[in-house]
């Protein structure tokens, strides 16, 4: 891989493997200006990524930012570095295999694991690891099951949990796998009780993993037993392409609860939101967003508030942002990524409109 300038700062790893599309910067309970505009919370346009993209992943880690990209028209896999000090993107090289709808996480070693996805040849078991100290990509052990539209979660043990997703013949999976970085091996773990894809997986303070999003059913994975337990369902109807965020402490909501916002049902887009309390294992409604949306991003700010950006609604792609204040109980693009920098600013990368 091409080398790039190392910078002693927190940076974002965004592996971008996506279909080419036009890129616009936009963001949207307490409404903010569009990304190009300015209000009390400033949302400023940054330099465009070199390759337009969607279905990519963003991971914050110290010293670098990179992205990989998939372009369906001619199958390229490109990596990019974002420099928060200069606000610019630079192409640094390609991954070994083009892909989109993959997932990425930083390992405890500081390396970054990219898992699965799909390209013109189909669904992938192939995984790759990026080493920020050498700026090199290398192949990692392959998953047992080819999959895309899955999630990866770094467990407290340092192992990685991969959950469900989609595979060949558009089969929705219930299978899950564990990656051991020390052995560079994958093994199957307990199946979820329901097949799902395009979901959200959130590491709870207990070390367990909450999976929700693609319908009204939620499940929790226990790494000690390797088993899943079903929870009380969210709401009266399923919600797809919603987003989950682990909350910090607030006057009303205790640290460790999970906010699930928006989504789309069988007939319409949602502005409604729900809170999951791990202590009780139950869901409760909270205030609605001002805009119905799905496929947006939510980011926990240092203040404990939640920034929701863009997404897709009944009128199409959205260009507004919203702030949710847990203490008060009081968001155009989709399939983008949003990551908090050490400065407290939010980097919005790629997406579709």
TrEMBL record:
Gene3D superfamilies: Galactose oxidase/kelch, beta-propeller (2.130.10.80), Kelch-type beta propeller (2.120.10.80)
Key words, A-Z: Kelch repeat, Repeat, Signal
SMART domains membership: Kelch
InterPro entries: Gal_Oxase/kelch_b-propeller (IPR011043), Gal_Oxidase_central_sf (IPR037293), Kelch-typ_b-propeller (IPR015915), Kelch_1 (IPR006652)
Keyword NADP: no
Signal peptide: 1-18
Name recorded for this polypeptide: Uncharacterized protein
């Amino acid at each position: 891989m091409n080398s790039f300038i190392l910078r002693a700062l927190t940076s974002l790893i965004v592996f971008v493997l996506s279909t080419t599309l036009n890129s616009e910067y936009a963001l949207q309970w307490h409404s903010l200006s569009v990304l190009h505009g300015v209000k009390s919370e400033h949302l400023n346009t940054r330099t465009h990524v070199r390759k337009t993209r969607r279905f990519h992943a963003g991971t914050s880690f110290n010293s670098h930012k990179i992205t990989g990209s998939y372009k369906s028209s001619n199958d390229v896999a490109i990596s990019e570095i974002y420099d928060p000090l200069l606000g610019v993107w630079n192409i640094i090289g390609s991954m070994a295999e083009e892909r989109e709808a993959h997932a990425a996480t930083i390992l405890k070693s500081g390396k970054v694991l990219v898992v699965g996805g799909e390209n013109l040849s189909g669904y992938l078991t192939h995984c790759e690891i990026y080493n920020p100290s050498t700026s090199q990509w290398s192949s990692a052990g392959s998953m047992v099951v080819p999959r895309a539209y899955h999630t990866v979660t770094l467990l407290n043990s340092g192992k990685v949990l991969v959950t469900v997703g989609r595979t060949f013949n558009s089969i929705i999976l219930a299978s899950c796998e564990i990656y051991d970085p020390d052995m560079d091996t994958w093994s199957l773990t307990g199946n979820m009780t329901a097949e799902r894809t395009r979901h959200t997986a959130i590491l709870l303070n207990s070390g367990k993993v909450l999976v929700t999003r693609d319908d009204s059913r939620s499940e929790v994975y226990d790494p000690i037993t390797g088993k899943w337990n079903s929870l009380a369902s969210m709401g009266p109807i399923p919600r797809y392409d919603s987003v989950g965020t682990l909350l910090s402490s607030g006057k009303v909501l205790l640290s460790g609860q999970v906010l699930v916002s928006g989504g789309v049902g069988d007939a319409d887009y949602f502005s409604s939101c729900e809170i999951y309390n791990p202590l009780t294992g139950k869901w409760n409604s909270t205030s609605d967003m001002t805009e119905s949306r799905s496929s947006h991003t939510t980011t926990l700010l240092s203040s404990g508030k939640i920034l929701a950006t863009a997404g897709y609604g009944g009128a199409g792609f959205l260009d507004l942002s919203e702030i949710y204040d847990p203490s008060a109980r009081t968001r155009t693009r989709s399939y983008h990524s949003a990551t908090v920098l050490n400065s407290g600013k939010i980097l919005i990368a790629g997406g579709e409109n």
